Amino acid sequence: MGGTEKYREKGKAAVAAGPWVLLQAWPSAGIIPLPISAPLGREHLERFGAADDLVSTEHCQLEVTGAGLSITDLGSTNGTWIDGRRAARGIATEGAVLRIGGSLFVVRRCSLREPQSAISGGDAGDLVAPFGLRALHGALDALARTRPPNVLITGETGTGKEPLARHVAMRLARAEPFEAVNAAAYRTDSFDAAFFGYERGAFTGAQASHAGIVGAAEGGTLFLDELGDMPTEYQPLLLRFLETREVRRLGATSPVRASVLIIAATNRDLESAVEDGTFREDLLARFGAPRLHLPPLRDRREDIPSIARVLAARAGWSLEEHADVAGIERLMVLPLRRNVRELRGVLEEALAVGGVEGEVLDKLRPLPKVGLDAAAIRDAVAVHDSERQAAKALGISRRQVRKAMTAGSRTGKHGPRTGSASGEAASDADDSDT
Questions:
Q1: Residue 120 — pLDDT band, cuts 50, 70, 90?
Q2: How much is the average pLDDT of 377-393?
Q3: Angle at which helices 387-394 and 398-411 pack, to 10 degrees?
Q4: pTM for this structure?
Q5: Fold of 134-294
Q6: Averaged pLDDT for residues 233-253
Q7: Which of 87, 158, 241, 421 lies 20 to 30 angstroms, CA to CA, from 306?
Q8: What ranges do the domains of the chain cover?
Q9: Do 32 and 21 touch, CB atoms closer than 8 A?
């Protein structure tokens, strides 16, 4: 096996110490190193705490290639599945979901480290992420050391930015009070009064003094969601507050000092917003490093079962009692463009019509069509050693395979080279489901 180191326990078969591992996502979380020169089967999984009676004694053969893991089913009883499709032979690329027996794994390049606990989000719940937010733990430790006055969280809609903000506030001893507002929700003429407050009689209708949002967060945290959509008209007002940490209420004669942690969140690329003139560069500069980025669920598939388990529990039902392995697998391979919000919706929809089961989700959320380019088809031919077998595995015609091979011949790309003793492919494949 090329590109790996080996270690051996006394009386045990050798396993790979890197760079490829299987991250177990269901029914529990764990890390399974690859066996070297031996099939992956029931005994190997039991050795690393992943016992599964549905796994055959010699279930499949794994080989590291330049494209990922070349996987060959060894006539197992329950089959080997790659990204939701049963495969006699195929390539599992980085991030692919692998089903073996009743267990689900994600193929990853990483070192042999145990999964970490969830990031506590207080009343907003936990950012459940045994694996996918490992890098975030280091950034959070840096925040605790440097204690910056302003923190920026980026990530797509539904990734959990507010729960993370609550955790940051807790780590920085600013958990209460916690005021959360949409930074884009105020009109220009109401921003001053809403954010900074006003004195009695400051304007018609001001029957009593009002502390404003900043005043309400005094001693704690102000969470500004959708910062990237804040209108340019009152970005200077926020900038001035971040620079001075002073608040002057409408109608007041002098400013007062504010002690507030500011945490902002956005799903926009603020650097691009600066370039197109919709966001101030000097305001962005107030949110320095370390910034916190929440990756989308499609980039951390290994966390999806754990997140789904928590969402089900909060809704009052058990995922284990209402799901099968094919259903959980389908959750892991769905695009989930709205992330946790969409995952919650899929769970609710599936439960309403029978459960989080493969047959149910086949109807509700069919597998996306496989996107294949010529390079992926040539890689499949190299794996299967046959154009006919490659066409069958990919679910395409032999004519399509021959067309891809002809295109490769014209450009001098004849598929992956196997010049090394380990048989590693010299070219990379795309995210083929083979």
A1: low
A2: 77
A3: 120
A4: 0.77
A5: Rossmann fold (3.40.50)
A6: 88
A7: 87
A8: 5-109, 134-294, 297-364, 374-411
A9: yes
